[in-house]
Amino acid sequence: MFYDDLEHALEKDNKTPLDIVKPADKAQLNRFISEYVKKHLSIKADGKVLNLNYVGYEIQEDGAWVYFEVKGVSTVKKIDIHDELLNAMHAEQINMLHVTVGGQRKSTKLDAPDADTSFSF
C-alpha cells in the first residue's frame, strides 16, 4: 500500500500525527500498524481463523510493506481472506492480494466495497 495512505489511516484511527518514514516512537508506530491491519484483515485456512503475528514493516519508494507470519499451518486446501485495508479512506480502493502455498502462487484484486475472496489449492 502507499505509505502516505497507511499513515493517514493510522493518524485517523489513533488521533495523533505520525511520520511513518521517520517515526519519533517506532514501538508505538509498530503497535498502531499491527492493530490496524489485524482490525481490517482476517485470513482463514481451511475454515480456521489464523493468528497473524506482526513481524514489521519497511518503506520502499512510496510503498509500505507490512509483514506478518502465521505458525502451525502445515497444509492448506483453501484460504479465505477478508481485506478492507484502507477501504474507509478511499471509496475506490483496490487491494491486490497474492497468496503462495506450496510454491503455487495465486493473485486477485478486490475493488472496494468488495472485501472477501477465496483461493483453493
Mean pLDDT score, rounded? 94
Radius of gyration: 15 Å
Q: Kindly estimate the percentage of residues that lie in beta strands according to DSSP.
A: 35-45%
Q: Unreliable stretches, pLDDT < 50, 5 or more residues?
A: none
Biggest beta-sheet profile? 4 strands, antiparallel
Query: Counting H and I runs of at least 4 residues, what is the number of helices?
Result: 2
Order of helices and strands: HHEEEEEEEE
Number of strands: 8
Shape: globular
Q: What distance lies between the first and last C-alpha atoms, to the nearest angstrom?
A: 26 Å
Q: What percentage of residues falls in helices of 4 or more residues?
A: 10-25%
Please list the strands of the largest sheet in the order they lie side by side.
Answer: 2-1-5-8
Helical/strand content category? alpha+beta
Q: Please indicate the count of domains.
A: 1
What are the main properties of this structure?
121 residues; alpha+beta; two-stranded antiparallel ribbon; 2 helices; globular; DUF6702
Overview in brief:
With 121 residues, the chain is of the alpha+beta class. It is built from two helices and eight strands; from the N terminus they run ααββββββββ.
Written description of the protein model:
- By secondary structure, the protein is α+β, with helices and mostly antiparallel strands.
- It has one domain.
- Helix content is 22%, strand content 40%.
- The strands form three sheets. A four-stranded antiparallel beta sheet has the order 2-1-5-8.
- The protein is globular.
